[in-house]
Amino acid sequence: MESSTFMLRDLPHEERPRERMMQNGAESLSQAELLAILLRTGTRQESAIHVAQRILGQVGGLRRLADLSIEEMMDIKGIGPAKAVQLKAGIELGRRMSNSRLGQPVTIRSPHDAADILTEQLRYLQKEHFVCLFLNTKNHVIAQETLSMGSLNASIVHPREVFRAAIKCSSASIICAHNHPSGDPTPSPEDISLTRRLLEAGGIVGIDVLDHLIIGDDGFVSMKEQGLM
Questions:
Q1: Which domains does the chain have, with CATH numbers?
Q2: Beta bridge mates, 73
């Protein structure tokens, strides 16, 4: 009797992503293979790997998949409630792992230190998120907060929200960051204008704005390093 679904164990041994991961490490697997491990089973017509490849092509890659809700995932052929929950849980664990380092004292010595904290959290989002790292006098990160979630092309934040949050946690300085959903981290005229307003407001309240990072798909731009602040 024909099986109702393709399973990873039905593939030839050398094509099974679980076995390849155990032998060669997770870094040796493609995005589709990693996704197939989370899916576990395919459909009557497709293996789990074929389903994973189709999903990535349909939604536009991992960056888009990560931002889907459980309900939106369930609209994709081959993803039911259980698979949607598994995928969302895996994505959320990855995001929390990126943020878990804040449980220990983290010192910001360069824009790269701040980017290491924020890049994986922001690079896959479809809307602009404006985030601040709040630092003490030793440049230790004492808090992180998302202060604005904008539309597809714009993030709106007012300096009063930024510095209200900074004062609340007794921050000596801040590093601002936001993502560009387009994937291109080039600062826009609006980014430059906002940064200058933040610098002016910081000077008034006595809290230094150390940098403003723009996060893209494959990198970031430090406005401090670019001489834009």
A1: 8-101 (1.10.150), 111-222 (3.40.140.10)
A2: none
Length of the chain: 229
pTM (two decimals): 0.62
Instruction: State how far the alpha carbon of 66 is from the alpha carbons of 35, 49, 60, 152, 184, in Å.
Output: 12, 18, 11, 15, 18
Q: Which of 91, 93, 125, 140 is CA-nearest to residue 215?
A: 125
CB 152 within 8 A of CB 186: no
- In a 13 Å sphere around the CA of 120, the CA atoms on its Cβ side amount to 14
Q: Which two tokens stand for residue 148?
A: 């604005």
Q: 96 burial class (0-12, 13-18, 19+ CB within 10 angstroms)?
A: exposed
Q: Taking the alpha carbons of 200, 180, 107, 164 in that order, is the dihedral positive or negative?
A: positive
Lowest mean pLDDT among 59-73, 87-101, 178-192: 87-101
| pLDDT(10) > 90 | no
> How many whole angstroms separate alpha carbon 193 and alpha carbon 26?
43
pLDDT digits (tens, 9 = 90+) for 96-143: 776 555 556 789 999 999 999 999 888 878 889 999 999 999 999 999
Report d(CA 22, CA 17) in Å as an integer.
9
Q: Which residues 6+ apart lie within 8 Å of 209 measured at CB?
A: 173, 174, 175, 176, 195, 198, 199, 202, 229
**Three-class secondary structure of residue 184 per DSSP:** coil
